[in-house]
Specification:
The chain is an alpha/beta fold. Helix content is about 35%, strand content about 20%. The radius of gyration is 24 Å and the shape is globular. The protein starts with about 25 loop residues before the first helix and ends with a helix.
């Protein structure tokens, strides 16, 4: 997805400079490498956006020094806390990020909350440029009655719970019900459905937390409905995640063929990835499985289904009002065509009994500091090509720049783009001249405020402990969940 730009804002203080094409980076790098002055850069956030930004800056400016600040004690953001435990191949980017963090021109500073422990203006005073790459740490709310009932969770919190995010370790979802409903039809929704329905023994050799695995072992959930406001042509998940669901051991899919009337004729005009995805949905809905697949589905003890053209209207309480017991869905129809079609209510409703409701309608970023512009409606920092509006020397990359869309490779390209923009501004003389103190100034501020940052070598000690604990039970690691325990292990 192309970075969102705020075209109504007139860049008066800075000229409009586009990042150089790939072929011109070498000439820029040659000029930068002759500079004697160290370029001090601060990156806020150690997820994919932060590390890819740092990686690109270090590669293309040989005198750059990058300090990465992270509020968690541990690095890697959503790669650690968002990627599903049964997708270990996606986490291999951690190896690349580790090499970046070990560079003598890069430093990781965990346990530092920017906006509280140190302000963005204070970072700007210490560095030539600051890049905000702190991601989307909140979720979109449903804004419907009953959302506050026990048994209703955000998918973000549920993912954080089974992935070991410290703030979610006490979530304790009750999985004693028969039916769960997931609102939203993106990859996160399918991740959550897959974890709920995967036989626990298939998760025992992953890095899922032991505490969440024990809850999943006791789960009584047998049916998961994945609900979307629109139709099969507008789902947000990708074919890889859909194929995993279809092939999930011990389960069978339920799709209503009536939802696919006319779809076959319309898919001829859609882009190839969407066409392949819709064709797989269509086959699953309308064709009987054969051979081995039919045999597996015949003995399946769990089911999952996609409910289209349904919009959440109200979470229904149990008779005593103490627990979610169902969800009222407004039946919708589409206006418009293709991926831009929108759902409008028909006036009909449908009640779906369930004991667990997981809202997966999107992540959103939070404002980080009063000095930084923020668009609360879009949940992003207003920017043009990564330059924060009206704040020279301040940049952004990743989800806080463009919204929570795309995959890790999307964030990589976006972060490289912001990095190129920054280097072009440096070349054009638009960053502060003269030396900047960098971390030395910030370290003094943090020390005076009683903040003790975590270094990357500290993280490597925690990493070794996690790996050691995991190996005792045949897992790649057993994640540490308690920040106090982490500090104690480090002798703090």
């Amino acid at each position: 997805m192309a970075p969102r730009c705020w075209r109504w804002w007139h860049w008066s203080a800075w000229p409009r400079i586009r990042p150089p094409p790939t072929g011109s980076i070498a000439s820029s790098r040659q000029q930068f490498s002759t500079q004697e002055q160290t370029l001090q850069i601060s990156v806020v956030g150690s997820g994919p956006a932060g590390f890819y930004t740092a990686q690109h800056l270090l590669k293309h400016h040989t005198r750059a020094h990058v300090d990465i600040f992270e509020k968690q004690l541990v690095p890697f953001g959503l790669v650690r806390f968002g990627v599903a435990p049964d997708h270990p191949e996606v986490k291999n980017v951690i190896n690349t990020f580790t090499q970046t963090a070990r560079s003598d021109r890069c430093a990781f500073h965990g346990n530092v909350v920017v906006g509280r422990d140190v302000t963005v203006p204070e970072l700007q005073e210490a560095y030539h440029a600051v890049v905000l790459s702190y991601g989307a740490e909140d979720h979109q709310t449903l804004e419907i009655p009953g959302e506050e009932l026990p048994g209703v969770f955000s998918a973000r919190a549920f993912v954080g719970w089974y992935n070991g995010l410290p703030e979610n370790k006490e979530l304790a979802p009750d999985l004693s019900c028969d039916t769960a409903v997931i609102l939203g039809q993106g990859n996160v929704a399918l991740d959550v459905a897959r974890i709920l329905l995967t036989p626990p023994e298939h998760l025992e050799k992953t890095d899922i937390t032991e505490a969440s695995l024990e809850v999943l072992r006791q789960s009584q959930v047998k049916t998961v409905w994945i609900v979307g406001r629109r139709g099969p042509l507008q789902v947000a998940f990708t074919i890889k995640e859909l194929r995993e669901m279809i092939q999930l051991p011990g389960t069978r899919p339920i799709l209503d063929p009536a939802d696919f009337l006319g779809v076959h004729d319309r898919i001829k005009e859609v882009p190839r990835p969407r066409k392949r995805l819709t064709e797989l949905l269509l086959r699953t809905a309308t064709e009987k499985p054969g051979g081995e697949e039919a045999a597996h589905q015949a003995v399946a003890s769990r089911v999952w289904g996609l409910r289209f053209f349904r919009s959440p209207q109200q979470v229904l309480p149990s008779p005593d009002g103490r627990q979610a017991a169902g969800i009222r869905l407004a039946v919708t129809r589409l206006e418009g065509v293709g991926e831009t079609a929108w759902a409008v209510p028909t006036g009909d409703t449908e009640d779906l009994p369930c004991g667990l409701v997981l809202s997966s309608v999107g992540y959103k970023s939070r404002p980080i500091d009063p000095s930084v512009p923020f668009d609360p409606k879009l949940g992003v920092i207003p920017n043009e090509e990564g330059r924060v509006v009206d704040v020279p020397g301040l940049y952004c990359s990743g989800w806080v720049k463009r919204g929570p869309t795309g995959v890790i490779t999307t964030t990589m390209a976006d972060s490289f783009f912001t990095s190129q923009t920054l280097l072009q501004d440096l070349k054009a003389g638009l960053l502060p001249p003269g030396p900047r103190p960098g971390y030395a100034a910030v370290e003094a501020l943090l020390s005076s405020r009683g903040v003790r940052p975590i270094s990357f070598s500290d993280w490597e000690k925690l990493d070794a402990e996690e790996v050691s604990r995991g190996h005792r039970t045949g897992k790649p690691r057993e994640k540490l969940l308690d920040p106090q325990e982490m500090l104690q292990l480090l002798g703090r």
